[in-house]
């Protein structure tokens, strides 16, 4: 296995945002079995190290390709773009205002008459937004509209962070 190749090539997949995750999982299992370090116990140190490196590479590739946000970032990185660069801070004002409103809404969840229902409603809203941004990214990427694809993936990062914060808040409030 050539661990210098891109993740899509490693799994024999097209370089696209829309992936068949079942095919990715199947390919991952097959490659994990083939390169699992336990299979190289009777080999020399160099081959054992290579097996460990290959397994780490496969795990990183699988994690990246199976998560929509990470897959989008990776696709743009393959084009030489860095959508998460610290200097890349411009976002549409309406989106930023929406994020402020969502964060304020999260702060008020603890005071809601039914926090569990409020959390569920917000979680569904965030998931719908994430799904729409994934569709947007795919459309822009496929159309070679990389600046808009970059904006979509950066927006998706905001939503994913909010989802993670909501999950943590849910754990605090409902435990």
Can you characterise this structure?
This protein is an all-alpha fold and 175 residues long. It has two domains: 7-66, Orthogonal Bundle (Helix Hairpins), CATH 1.10.287; 93-174, Up-down Bundle (Monooxygenase), CATH 1.20.1280.20. The protein has helices at 7-11, 21-35, 45-66, 68-78, 93-107, 115-142, 146-174. Helix 4 (68-78) runs antiparallel to helix 7 (146-174) and helix 6 packs antiparallel against helix 7.
What is this entry, summarized?
This protein has 175 residues and is mainly alpha-helical. Helices cover 71% and strands 0% of the residues.
Summarize this structure as a short list of keywords or feature phrases.
175 residues; Helix Hairpins; 2 domains; 7 helices; 71% helix
- Sheet with the most strands? none
CATH level 1 name of the largest domain: Mainly Alpha
Taken together, the total number of domains comes to 2
Rg, rounded, reads 20 Å
The number of strands is 0
C-alpha geometry: globular
């Amino acid at each position: 296995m050539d661990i210098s190749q891109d993740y899509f090539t490693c799994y024999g997949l097209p370089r696209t945002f829309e992936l068949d995750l079942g095919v990715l999982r199947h390919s991952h299992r097959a490659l994990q079995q083939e390169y699992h370090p336990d299979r190289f116990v009777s080999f020399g140190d160099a081959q054992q190290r290579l097996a460990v490196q290959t397994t780490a590479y496969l795990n990183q590739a699988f994690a990246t390709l199976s998560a929509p946000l990470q897959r989008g970032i990776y696709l743009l990185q393959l084009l030489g773009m860095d959508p998460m660069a610290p200097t890349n801070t411009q976002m549409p004002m309406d989106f930023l205002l929406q994020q402020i409103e969502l964060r304020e809404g999260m702060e008020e969840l603890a005071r809601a008459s039914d926090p569990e229902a409020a959390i569920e409603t917000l979680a569904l809203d965030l998931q719908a937004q994430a799904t729409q941004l994934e569709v947007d990214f795919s459309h822009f990427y496929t159309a070679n509209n990389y600046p808009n694809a970059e904006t979509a993936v950066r927006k998706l990062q905001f939503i994913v962070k909010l989802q993670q914060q909501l999950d943590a808040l849910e754990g605090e409030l409902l435990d």
